Amino acid sequence: MGNLQFLLRQHVGAPCEPVVKSGDKVKKGTLIAAPAGLGANIFSSVYGTVQDVAGDRIIIEPDKVQEEEFVPIQDGSHLDMVKEAGIVGMGGAGFPTGVKLGTDLNGGYILVNAVECEPGLYHNIRQIEDNIEMTLKGVKYCMEISNAAKAVFAIKAKNKKAVETLRKAVHDEDNIFIHLLPDIYPMGEERAVVREVLGKLLDPTQLPSAADSIVVNVETALRVAEAIDLKKPCFSKNLTVIGKLHGGNAPHVYMDVPVGTSVEELIERSGGIDGVYGEVIMGGPFTGHSTALDVPITKTTGGIIVTMEFPDLHGAPVGLLICACAGNEARMREVCTKMNGNVVSVGTCKNAFEMKNGTLKCQDPGNCPGQAQKCLQFKKDGAEYIIIGNCSDCSNTVMGSAPKMKLKVFHLTDHVMRTIGHPLYRRLTVSKQEAQLPNGK
């Protein structure tokens, strides 16, 4: 095990402030950084020695011998224990869970996001299959803390083993239910979960609390149970490593990886990179970003993907269709550059709403109004290719117009999908109506 790096920003809010210095000995569970405002405590995930406290990170050299025991958090109210443990949204957003659960739902809903929305990632589903007891405990704690009357697991119907495991687990629960979802991206987006489960479409500025609900990632629920039952700080992460690896492109699912572990170490543990590759992505194919091998994982890291090489567009003119459901313009331009394309036109999906911080949110995630007008603009601007990053429905509407204009289509995720043997995002194979499923226990 090499040195571990703990980034001081692993959550929504300001970076944490270090509470250790170079030379300090730390244990697994030692507090090493604390928030000055909105944020979450950061703990060492190993026994070792602090080597450096840099501007944005703390570097720890692990001891050769690692013990299983950890420094427990203090007893307190269940909400206080969640805050003390430094738990954040572990599905990628990183919002401090103690703040989220501090909302009094007055009889509302805990919506458990078990959608595992990004293709190629499997650790949330594996957690349900292998650790449903602790996961369910966490959900019940979330209900108790936030004064929720009901909980609903949102999960894709295709995950049959996990769904059956859930059905058995909640069979005798009077207030915990299952809602089955179609395999359409982005069913795991927070407002999409609220819409699909509760039938309420929130506008982009509204939080789930506007629908008397809190959305909690399935791993976050597990960490809540660990904090309360085991007094365990949040210092480990479940994740998936997949892609162009020696031994094939099957997913490698890891549970309780120490936060701070490098991308390279996890790739090597999974067999190592197989020959020439395109890029390494941290996160999922849609919303992840390219990363370097020496970058550490954080509390929000869900995936590490090694991709095949990019196709070469030989300088051809390209239009970029920016969507709120995937990479931003900078990410889309990066992919275009790696494909040796020349950007001549940029358009934004008309469903994308610009937030005050400049980010985009979809007005109705997964339901697209059509893209013919954007494709026509790309054609007028001289594009021969378009690169899109759209949801399943958006991509479907692009394919209804772009080929007729002789525009060749690439999706932001194509190099990932080809690497892992997943169907490309082009046309929906079933209608959204056909994809709807019966729900309940």
From TrEMBL:
Keywords: 4Fe-4S, Electron transport, Iron, Iron-sulfur, Metal-binding, Repeat, Transport. Residues 82-225 form the NADH-ubiquinone oxidoreductase 51kDa subunit FMN-binding domain. Residues 4-55 form the RnfC Barrel sandwich hybrid domain. One of its GO terms (cellular component) is membrane. It comes from Muricomes intestini. It holds the Pfam family RnfC_N. InterPro entries: Ion_transpt_RnfC/RsxC, Nuo51_FMN-bd, Nuo51_FMN-bd_sf, PR_assoc_PrdC, RnfC_N. This is Proline reductase-associated electron transfer protein PrdC.
